Amino acid sequence: MGSITPALPSFNVLHNTKPNDTTLPAFMVSSTRGFLPRQEPIVSLPSDFAVLESILTRMPIKTLSGEAGLLATYTLGETVLRELPDLTDAINKYKDDLPLMNALYRDYSFLASAYLLEPCHERFMKGEGYGLGRQTLPSIIALPISRCAELAGFKPFMEYAGSYALFNYRLADPALGLEYSNLRLIRAFEHGLDPTSSEAGFVLVHVDMVRNSGPLVDGVVSALAACEKDDREAFDEGMKKIVESMVKVNKVMDGMWQKSKPGDYTSFRTFIFGITSQSMFPHGVIYEGVSETPLSFRGESGANDSMIPLLDNTLQISMPSTPLTSILQDFRSYRPGNHRDFLAHIASLSNALGLRAYSFQKQSSAAWYLLALNQVRDFRWRHWCFTREYILKKTAHPTATGGSPIVTWLPNQLDAVMSAMVATATEWKDKGGLGQDCEDIMEAVIVQRETLRKEVEKYCAERGVVSK
Description:
Largest sheet: 2 strands, parallel
Strand order of the largest sheet: 1-4
């Protein structure tokens, strides 16, 4: 008797996102909304949280009414201690409503970050260094954020998807959907409630990018299913869908230059720093009533987005064994649980099927594989350019908001994808090549790789850090 090949594991990617089902987590991967939440984010909290809502409404440097808010007068901390009760019992009252738990997690994470980093903002506005943030998070914030984070599946600190970006937009007109001009922020630190501000642009461009992730998810799932069935035509079609969706994502990403100005970023950036590896919190933060031992969490970072990690896993991009890659792996825990499970599933499935090797078996597939790698490179190169123009040229602070080394971390991943591209082109060099488009891409990659090397050396030398 022949052996029976065990079935490969499956994953439930939603096609119907069930937006009215409050028993499901807010974030579940779908072929329609991709990595966006299943439903539009909850904007208003129940009346039980009226005090919290009031403080958050008054908190931004510029409020929705145009008046100066609590962070403008450096009075948020004292206002929180004077007005805010412990609302943990109210959270427990609604604990089975998981999208509401996500909204509460978003709101408490905004409040926690603003409270901890308000002194740093005040010093920054005076032209001083950041100094120390508040080293203790009072129980009136620490207890409720810990509870709603636990229920929603996050760490008790601000994260990219669950709070700062992907669950922090509303539609000005629900009938117009996710068009960029129809997006508004729910919460903000600085001027973000004005949709024309750089803070709003910074967040909403990310939402607009992820809006295109449904076809990306569908392309990945389709390509892997075709690989398993050895359906070459369907495989190439799936890879084509991956490339086309990423072309749209990268085009939207390029709009960041116009919608969020480089000179404005450092002023609202203060509030999205984390605790881990930051000089503002050298010993961590005491969460009063939660832990007597200081806690430490990474800050909000676009590196927590799931689109590029999805492609890293699908395309089997090999990362170097370095401390910088260890940070990349640590970032994986700062995503919605369903996203984490999906990315792990795709990594396992792609490795089991050998997607990269399958791509190399035919020229058409290898070309699509290289084009997909090129979209990852394009994304990471632009991210590096943002880092250079928005941060490296504006501030000497050595770490990014997520706690990674500001000069060397992104180049670590960017060089890895460039290496994968070189290996792919080399593999096919003596087999007739992959066509003129791919040859043109590789010529540009060789030049860009050398440019990256020189830029990293320059900034490392200026800042006195080791480039590797």
